[in-house]
Amino acid sequence: MSVRLAGDAIVLEGPCRVEDAEPLLRWLQEKPGRVVDLTDAEHLHTAVFQVLLALRPTIRGEGKDTFVRDWMVPLLSAAQAPGAARTEG
């Protein structure tokens, strides 16, 4: 697995696959204040990304993958910013 619990942080490493979404979701629901560390993440499956977007944890690191760094992390950072606009639809 590419997801592991390290104290109060959830560390995503290497290519994060669909099966990593379930433990990520469970650990974030158990303790919503946990930080998600993307420093060593190389790829995020859409299911993992959706969990992060839905639960909006604090994100640490930018990942090793250009797409994660340039596109996903800015969206996650905007989603957790104070006063971030939320679209109801």
Commentary on this structure:
The chain has one domain (about 5-80): Transcription Regulator spoIIAA (2-Layer Sandwich). It contains 3 helices and 4 strands. About 25% of the residues are buried. By secondary structure, it is an alpha/beta fold.
Quaternary state of the chains:
single chain
Low-confidence blocks of residues: 83-89
**What is the tally of helical segments?**
3
Helix percentage: 25-40%
Number of strands: 4
The overall average pLDDT, rounded, is 89
Instruction: List the strand order in the largest sheet.
Output: 1-2-3-4
Distance between the termini: 35 Å
CATH topology annotation: Transcription Regulator spoIIAA
Can you give keywords for this protein?
alpha/beta; Transcription Regulator spoIIAA; 89 residues
At a glance:
It contains 3 helices and 4 strands, in the order E-E-H-E-H-E-H. With 89 residues, it is an alpha/beta fold.
